[in-house]
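Homework help board

Subject: predicted structure for assignment chain

Our instructor gave us this sequence and asked us to write out the predicted structure in token form, then describe one feature. I got the tokens but I'm not sure how to describe them. Can anyone check?
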Amino acid sequence: MNATRALHWGDAVTGLSLAGLLLPEAVAYSGLANLPPQAGVIGLFAGLVFYAFIGRSRYAIVTATSSSAAVLAAATLALGADVVSQRIAYSSILVCATGIAFLLAGSARLGAMSNLIARPVLRGFSFGLALLIVLKQWPHIVALHTHSTDFFALSAEILRHAGAWQPASLAVGLCALSGLFICGRVRRLSRIPGVLLVIIAGIGAAPWLAARGVALTGPIHLALEMPAFAAPANGRWLAMVEFALALMFILYAESYSSIRTFALKHDDAVQPNRDLIALGVANLVSGAFHGTPVGAGYSGTSANEAAGAQSRAAGLYAAATVLLMVLLFLPWIERIPEPVLAAIVIHAVSKSLRLAVFRPYFHWQRDRLVTVTAVAAVLVFGMLDGLLAAIAFSLAMLLHSLSSPRLSVLGRMGAHDFVSITRFPQALCTPGVLVLRPEEPLFFANADPLLAMARRHVVHQTDVRLVILSLEESPDLDGTALESLGEFAAWLAARNIALRMARLKEASRDGLLRANFSQLPAAGLDYSSVDDAASAR
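My token output:
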């Protein structure tokens, strides 16, 4: 009983400390999504409450995220939403559609789908998106009305109108940024909620700042309205579906990364399909009441863990605290200066602006081009098209790598081992026996080139009487690979050369058995090692 009481007390204290961080961030991300301030607050309630009841991570804090807010803003702009009411209606459809996509994915048990976005792509996308978000928040810092949306055009517009920057607004934004970074960097201040400090300071100075032209947040209307949707212009439902899927992928990639990181740290189990359902319900409810898309962002989740959360109840306590703050202090929240909210957004995404995240890929000499392309794609094509372009490029690079044939000739090393003679020149080749190993999985894009290379090796060694193919790299064989292997077996049989398969995986062996090639009897498929295939008589 005492342990349970201590657990709830600890979660209550954690929820209380989190509320001061989450509420201003929710309001700030509403502005980033080009939605009224209440949109982020509604999303915050939906995420905290429904994930706590359905989700499985004890540390995940589900609320609006900078990346999803930025993508939502880009999506509504691409759909032609020019006025606030239209943006709200389109956003509701997109967020609800995102929730439905999550629910369908969870029902289909597609919890590993975030793996479709390679980590280098996610790193590059996050870096490029952070640059774009910082640039789009700068006009709020300097009280400048801009019209451009493209990264380079917006940069030029901001610089071209540098003389119109409002000094008071700029000073407020820079002071807020400095305070946030100081609280985060100085060890003695690291436990102080910097966001709450700059918010309180901004509210306290609001009358004086407003008299000098600094914009304030303005009215926040939290009365729940009945769900209302609007059809996109020109029936652009396909575009809606594409944007919703993009939102789902971004949210889940970010959420799964946060959830998995802290689960590994604390040896907790991960249930990705259950989390898909939880995110789906949270987004469906948020969208129905005109809220922002929500996911398990890294900053909120890490703050929850650092504050000492022990269960999902911390999120419920945070929701209750936020509700109390809204009921008691809403007039004060409406007085938060806009440059302060912009500074909160910039500080939140600054963690993604570290060049150090790219260092391993350059040191390993792996995926360097993918990371750089992901950054460039976001800046050149925008958030949505940039992400899709980066994913497509990474898949194209994967296919290029897999379709580039690499075939090793193996020789005997010691009593039973067979190794590449290129890497181990001292390995001995058995007279009359040619042992070959494809270094990539055999599939439609590389089957013919690889087996053409195998034919050249056979022709080059005129005394070959037995060819052994070690297919340990091929977990399965598609139709093209099966046909190519059948043709290769027939080509060898015409030259009185036997063919044996070694180290076949179950799926590959089953495929060859079903193909039932006369030159590849079942007896030639059951060798568990190259040594067994070479020693058999």
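Reply (TA_rk): Your tokens look well-formed. For the description, you could write something like this. The radius of gyration is 29 Å. That's the kind of observation they're looking for.
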